[in-house]
Amino acid sequence: MGGRRLLDPLAATLFFVSGALGLGYELIWIRKAALIVGASQIALSTVLTSFFVGLGTGGLVIGRYGRAARRSPLLLYGLFEIGIGLWALAFPWLFEGVERLYGLLVPSLSAGGAGLFALRFALLFGLCLPPTFLMGGTLPLLLDALVRDDRGIGPRTGLLYGLNVLGAVCGVLATAYLAIPALGMNGTSRFAGACNLAVGGIALVCFRGVRAVHRADAPAERPGATFVALAFTAGAVAIGWQTCHARYFSLLDVTTVYTTALLLAVWLFGLASGSLALAPILGRRLEPLRVVAAAQGLVPVLGLFALDAAGWVDFSPQLGVVRAQDGSLVPIDTMQVLPRHAFFSETMDAILFGPLLRTGLVVFAPVALMGACLPALIAGATARSSALRSVSGTLVFWNTLGCAAGAFLAGYLLLPALGLHGSLATLGLTSIAVGSVAWKAAPPGPPLARLPLAGALAAGAAAVAAFALFVPDPTRRVLERHGYGRADDRQSVEVVEDPIVTAYVHEDHDRLLIGAGAVAMAVAAKHGPSPQAIQGHLPLLLFGAPGVPRRCLGIGLGSGQSFGALLLYPIESLDVVDVSPGLVELSLRRFAQFNHGLAHDRRVRFHFDDGRHFVGHAAEGTYDLVSMEPPPPTADGVFSLYSLDFYRQVRRCLSDRGVFMQWLPLYRLSPRDALGILRTQTEAFPESFVVKHGDEDFVVLSFKRRPTFSIDEIRRRARVFSGERSVAGHRWGARCRFEIASFEGVASAILAGPDALRGIEAAVYADDTQRLAYGSGDRWLLERYRPHVSRLTFAGLPESPWSELARYFEPPLDAERIAMLDEERAAALEFFDVSAPARLESWRRLAEQGAELSQRVRGQLALAAAHDVRLQKSAAFERVRAALALDPANDAPADVALVRRIARNHFAVFRAETLALVADLRSRLPQAPLARAMATAVDEVERLEQQRRARYLFPER
Questions:
Q1: Secondary structure of residue 323 in the 3-state scheme
Q2: Segment holding 823, helix H or strand E
């Protein structure tokens, strides 16, 4: 009996672990599948469908036909776990084989056609079927082994199902937060496979003497049609809610690897909680179908009116501000933040606890109610324990099939046809219908026992009616409160839901904006030049060969301005690729006046596909130009468009004289992330240049071979450029001498060339490791200073002197023109407070050759201030030290104010570096007035910083 007492907890523990491993595999498969079919909804829906169908088929087959034998179900369970582990160890090689097979077959199929979809599904389904079949069979096997009498059907079913799903929660979080960042996708699969082998080995060893509980001749039973229909519909409704929740949260913030994993984890935790709570309820002999009726009736009450709870808690830091002389609010010079809420640590609150709490407030309660339904249906449909394996297998099959159907119906039918508001109301009505059917199917009981069920269903129906009739559309409500529609003078023009994204257009007096989810895809300026329009001209203006590109590819339509600019030149063809038909249709209709007739030009062909997939299967040397304007690299899935694997595919599809343009949004990147992108792109394209095209907008132009920029060609192309909307007569900045549409204006936009970029020391981003998705170690800067991060990122970029860039121009530039371009570039970078080289040189001469001591001190301090504005703290302090060496007793009020500003400037960003530099000054010149002033300034802000850090349980160093 002692062994029997240990049997249940050991099997439950192993089932918990196998649940964690199973969801880890699902995350890996989704990310790996995106590398075959593209980082799009296609990968997600295909893998999920394969996953659900495999699970259901395994449950059905094992439950109905796997009962022979005198073998214990627990031994079979161990063999199944070993089979899963062996498959996971082989997964990297299996995936490579599928990828090669797909590459061989896809050229024979039409892009985007039914044949291509069928090929994708067949390959991924075949890859996922063996392990998911085995996973699906584990629950019926364990139920068959551990439920030994009829009284244990309900409690044991709820307990085991809940533990397995609770393990899935841990698996999702561990895979997303720990395993993939540390081991990569292939390494994570191998590690999980080893864990499955261990689980199976433990089961075989510990359960080898356990005999089968049920007789071999026990007949398989099938649940009634009502239970099958309820299981199918409950699964479809549950995944429909999940799909709508995912769309809702995509409007609140840019979806990242963390938010995606957290939504899934909270969802699974809700399912597990509902199932675990069900176990003691059914232990009291409560009718299972009544539980289903009450739970489904209350789902709309909690689900529809919990959406606004996402705004109740905000863990994002609030940047301290002061009021400027003109009345505007500007960030304090220290860049200190004031956390709205502080709990664990700044980083963990930002990436885990804040999103977790916000998601939980919206999702947990209704999902917990849904989590009770499947185990309750299994308990209600099973008359005796000997039939549990076959009944549970059948209902698991239909429930998972319903999940697959729900993902398709919600994403491809409900959301495009009814929008988020109508979809949620429809799901609420369907929940009421499921509850009503369960109520009617339940055995009759005392009238008083039926009143609570009627009340729950009536409350749900009233909630749906109130939501449909009186609650504003949640999509527009979120966009107006939290998104790009929250500005006082900005109006929502149109919102379009499609299977991929929620696309919308907002308008104010100066701009027309198109967005998708929480991302502004592009902006068209009504009264001035738009950065996106200028961006489209850059690869043609700086095309490093005679003539212009003939065959062009544009990825990520946005407003269409970038690609429309290409039509002003004598190109032969332009392929435009975008994943979202709704966004493309909205953009072409609303931005026609800005994109030069992109919708009607015969040279243009539109492809609704993922850009990565399209490039990966384009013929070698197809295009002279590839231009990209994707969402921010931090968005989930987009990181694969900034990987070395992708850049090599782009290089393959370029002609010998080809050019590749990649957007580099400094205001969406931390300094190390930006350097990592540049390092990765130059690994594939050594001949690369960083070019600006707006205040904060930059691109990377990469050439397949060393370019030669003809000055005469640039002048000719600039005449076309001057015809771009609102470009003529404008300059990069107020200090610029030349118009944008001139050789000087175009050339002065180049920030860095190949020599400077080759010297970058940073991570190289690869598909398997996904380092860009998680950040390169300073992602906290982006989270904390998002409105101001572009200055921090710019400060870390390399810059090429024009004497170095001049080698790429023909005819060669003389010294006078080189000096002029240096000055013009500094003026063009006015937004970043870049000092003109001539001004820096005058201060340098004053510092080194000034006739009087005070002049040399003034020159050193002026250089210190210039370096500090560029956030070059070490160089600034070096100049302060030089000034103190000249005159240690200097206590001029203006100089004291200047060095205090240097010590305080962005202190919260450069805290460790500034503390070390000030400590060095203190030790060298403890009595110098300027050194004391800097130390006092640092002590003041450090006290405030310590107070802020003390609010956390585990303050970061």
A1: strand
A2: helix 815-828
At 343 the three-state DSSP class reads coil
Does residue 73 or residue 686 have the better pLDDT?
686
Looking at residue 636, what is its pLDDT? 74
Domain 225-313+346-482, CATH class in plain words: mainly alpha
Tell me which DSSP letter residue 765 carries: P
**Type and span of the H or E element at 615:** helix 611-616
Give the Å distances, CA to CA, from 948 to 342, 346, 604, 837.
9, 10, 55, 40
DSSP 952: S
Q: Which amino acid is at 574?
A: L
Local structure of 578: helix, strand or coil: strand
CATH T-level fold of 530-725+749-808: Rossmann fold (3.40.50)
Distance of CA 494 to the CA centre of its chain: 25
What radius of gyration, in Å, describes the C-alpha atoms of the chain? 32
Gap between the Cα atoms of 344 and 347, Å rounded? 8
Exposure class string for 602-613: b at 16+ Cβ within 10 A, else e:
eebebbebbbbb
pTM: 0.89
- Cβ proximity of 600 and 731 under 8 Å: no
Count the neighbouring beta carbons within 10 Å of the beta carbon of residue 592. 15
Question: Residue 215: which pLDDT band, with cuts at 50, 70 and 90?
Answer: very low
The domain defined by 1-209 carries CATH number 1.20.1250:
yes
Instruction: Count, in order, helices (H) and strands (E) of the chain.
Output: 36, 18
Q: With H, G, I as helix, E, B as strand and everything else as coil, classify residue 488.
A: coil
Domain 1-209 and domain 225-313+346-482, same fold? Reply is yes
Judge whether 392 and 73 are in contact, CB under 8 Å: no
String of DSSP letters for 333-367 = TT--EEESS-SS-HHHIIIIIHHHHHHHHHHHHHH
Complete DSSP assignment for 698-755: EEEEEESS---EEHHHHHHHHHHHTTSTTTTT--SSTT--S-SSSHHHHHTTEEE-HH
Show me where the domains of the chain are located: 1-209, 225-313+346-482, 530-725+749-808, 835-949
- The full DSSP string for 34-91 is HHHH-SSHHHHHHHHHHHHHHHHHHHHHHHHH---SSS-HHHHHHHHHHHHHHHHHHH
Q: What is the DSSP string of 505-526?
A: EEE-SSEEEEEETTEEEEEEES
Of 280, 347, 229, give the one whose Cα is nearest residue 779: 347
Of 673, 631, 698, which is closest to residue 782 (Cα–Cα)? Answer: 673
Q: Helix 873-886 crosses helix 929-949 at what angle (to 10 degrees)?
A: 150
CB 28 within 8 A of CB 185: yes
Phi, psi of 265 (to 5 degrees): -65, -45
pLDDT in tens, 651-668: 999 999 999 999 998 888
